[in-house]
Amino acid sequence: MDFDFAPDQVTFRAEVDAFLDEHDDPDVFDPTRENMAQIVDTPPRRKFMSQLGEQGWLGITWPTELGGKDGDGVYEYLLNEALAGRGGPQIGKGVGIIGKTLIRHGNEKLKREFLPKILRNEVEFAIGYSEPEAGSDAASMKLRAVRDGEGWRLNGQKTWTTSAHFAEWYWVGARTDPDNKHQGITLFLVPLDDPGITINPIWTMGDERTNDVF
After folding, report:
1. Model-wide pTM > 0.85
2. Residue 34 belongs to what domain range?
3. Is residue 143 located within the same domain as residue 86?
């Protein structure tokens, strides 16, 4: 079994390194940042990630018909490894958790609205899974979502929500069936500027911010 990277993967990594050398910026890359170096939390970092989008690298593992390059996961790994080595922001929840879930399970309206924006890095997400009594056991989440006319009303608390203070959209898990612990959870996309949302900071020992969201 050959564990070496394929020639085209080696070429890709060299292209990434050259691009990062060309766009080296202390406002984007900080190898001394010990916590949350991967998040896209400042305007220079957002601009840089948009430049990665222009290269076609944000959706490198997405299907070509949705704007991607249909590459395997090794390319995404090589890109993130290069970014992490310089203390830079990395492709993560927007491209991965949210984008790939929408590709597989989202309706056409959600795909049209969000997938192009993700590829251009025009939208930032926060993820709301953890609660005061539900961490790694996501099936214990209690935040409720109940029907309200043609929409839904969500009520409860999430915690340890990194990115909530600068993201535009909240990818939040809510309980829609109180009687079915493991299958009674639905994912919602909620605008974080909704007046019904309150975001309170939690400052970590490493002087990084995460949040409670109500």
Report:
1. yes
2. 7-119
3. no
Same domain, 35 and 95: yes
For residue 56, the domain's CATH number is 1.10.540.10
Per-residue pLDDT tens digits for 60-105: 999 999 999 999 999 999 999 999 999 999 998 999 999 999 999 9
CA dist., res. 210 & res. 214, Å (int): 13
Q: Is 135 left (phi over 0), alpha (psi -120 to 50) or beta?
A: alpha
The CATH number of residue 144's host domain is 2.40.110.10
Task: Return contacts of 172-176, CB within 8 angstroms, 24+ apart.
Answer: 172/127, 172/128, 172/129, 172/143, 173/128, 173/129, 173/138, 173/141, 173/143, 174/141, 174/143, 174/144, 174/145, 175/141, 175/142, 175/143, 175/144, 175/145, 176/144, 176/145, 176/146
